[in-house]
Design brief:
Number of strands: 18
Structural class: alpha+beta
Order of helices and strands: HHEEEEEEEEHEEEHEHEEEHEHEEHH
Strand content: 25-35%
CATH topology of the largest domain: Aminopeptidase
CATH class of the largest domain: Alpha Beta
Helix content: 25-40%
Distance between the termini: 40 Å
CATH architecture of the largest domain: 3-Layer(aba) Sandwich
């Protein structure tokens, strides 16, 4: 696949996945895209994770290549008599970002209903109330229903229905800057799919399990069972990592700058990555001239939290595409960061044999 085709394929996948509806526990649309792209041989476990196996020349080691399918979203919690909807968050939201934003509610029948998030209007607030942060539990969604019966019967909305932001994929004025909801972690899912498709056409020594996990945003739940399904010898977790190239963050402390390359995470509060595996990725990026950034994070976590603790332990690394404004309605990535992550993962998988993986766990040298 030449670079032009690779870029076109990336844009197609990012648009298709980014526009899809996939809050935690409601990942059916993403599973459908995964199956559509990789064929009927894909499988699922009883948690809802999805897998596609690509056997290499030697067949070992077993490499888990993982991205989570879900995005931060909401669920219908209460239907009010006047037809408004109270909702609860699925994943981490900052309520500053929510008011007056459009959302999509997915009904049991598969229809999507557009609504808007509202709250008590500011001109009706008392003295001192305008400066206070509005809590999510004080917000509601308005879909234009006249009462609760109308909401249930004509709109088909029920308790527990899934909600995601309305933010269609688009290329910005700088066409390498991409805007959409859910790049955390539709970039990871696009990478898994595109890499597995490529592995079907090139030699590699190992067996790679391309995986989409469920419910990462509510406690890395799918990753816990995915480890048992694959039983990997090593793992690469692909993420839409939070960018930090914004006002208020000192330039010297920035480790996720959009447009400066794939992010190689060394640690966060939930996982310290296998140091030899991470250094291997860094050395490979340097030898191939792939731009990269190294991150040591004070907060956050990924599916690595569960995967690296599977059974006797799994040497794991996290590779991220820096994404501005994750866990909001709109996030921004740079296409070249995505393509750099793609190139680095492919290079790792082309070279990762059993001897190399075993060396990552030789702690007595």
């Amino acid at each position: 696949m030449n670079s032009g085709n690779r870029k076109t394929r990336a844009l197609e996948l990012l648009m298709k996945l980014g526009d899809a509806h996939g809050a935690p526990g409601y990942e059916n649309s993403i599973r459908g895209i995964f199956r559509e792209e990789l064929g009927p041989a894909v499988s699922t476990d009883r948690m809802g994770n999805i897998f596609c196996e690509k056997k290499g020349i030697a067949g070992s080691p077993r490499i888990l290549l993982s991205g989570h399918m879900d995005e931060v979203g909401f669920a219908v919690q209460t239907i009010l008599k006047n037809g408004l909807i109270k909702f609860m968050p699925l994943g981490g939201w900052w309520s500053h970002t929510l008011l007056a934003q459009r959302v999509r509610i997915l009904t049991r029948e598969g229809r999507e209903i557009l609504g808007i998030i509202g709250a008590k209007p500011p001109h009706l607030l008392g003295e001192g109330e305008r400066e206070k942060l509005v809590k999510i539990e004080d917000m509601f969604i308005d879909v234009g229903a006249v009462n609760a019966d109308d909401l249930r019967e004509r709109f088909g909305i029920r308790l527990g229905d899934s909600i995601v932001p309305w933010s269609p994929f688009l290329r910005m004025h700088n066409p390498d800057m991409l805007l959409c909801k859910g790049f955390d972690n539709r970039v990871g899912m696009a990478l898994v799919i595109q890499i597995i498709q490529l592995l079907g056409t090139i030699p590699h020594p190992n067996t790679v399990w391309g995986t989409g996990t469920v419910q990462e945003e509510v406690g890395v739940r799918g990753a816990q069972t995915a480890g048992f399904s694959v039983n990997p010898d090593a793992a690469i977790v692909l993420e839409g990592a939070p960018a930090d190239d914004l006002p208020g963050i000192p330039e010297d402390e920035r480790q996720g700058v959009v447009g400066r390359g794939v992010q190689i995470r060394l640690m966060d509060p939930t996982a310290i990555m296998n140091r030899k595996f991470a250094q291997y990725a860094i050395a490979l990026a340097e030898s191939l001239g792939i731009p990269y950034q190294v991150a040591v994070r004070r907060s956050g976590g990924t599916d690595a939290r569960a995967i690296h603790l599977h059974q006797k332990g799994v040497p794991t690394i996290v590779l991220g595409v820096p994404s501005r404004y994750i866990h909001t309605q709109n996030s921004i990535i740079h296409l070249e960061d995505y393509l750099g992550a793609f190139s680095l993962v492919v290079a790792i998988l082309e070279n990762l044999d059993e001897q190399k993986v075993n060396s990552f766990c030789d702690f007595c040298d």
